[in-house]
Amino acid sequence: MSLLAILALAPASLLSAANVKDASLKESIALMQEISGATMGIRETAARIESFNRTPLQLSRISHTYQLNELREQMNALAPAVGRLEELSASLGASEQKTIARAGIAARTLAAEINATILKQNEIDGNPSLNVDYCRLVESVYKRASSLNKTLDAAADYSKARGRAEQNGIISAQSE
Description:
This protein is mainly α. It has four helices and no strands.
């Protein structure tokens, strides 16, 4: 291949790499927003269970079971988006990689908390609202979902702003 042909292909390959990074960034932002929205749903479900705990004698164990199943389904629906986000992280900047790694850990911890809450409810005879450990687990699920929601909202906003700044030449694509 001649030197002229190599030079002619070089800008196209650089442009292609930039397009791939831009596409990865856009997809990762969309996934962060999707996960953030899903964690808001988890937080709302946990808040509903916490409200049950404030009036323990008014709602049955079945009400708790239904809401815990809802939490499990919400978390299971979230898993593919978290996995895809983690796959994309290698093609993103260092700050996005760190955030995505932390978000993955936080999502797995949230899933473990939800599972622990379900297991605790299964151990309890009678109304789970009367069990202090169960109430603490529900509160922990709420707090973890809130934290993950806020983190991913901020990360998506940061990534969008950074992408716009790179596109407009305000910062270079290599700077962190």
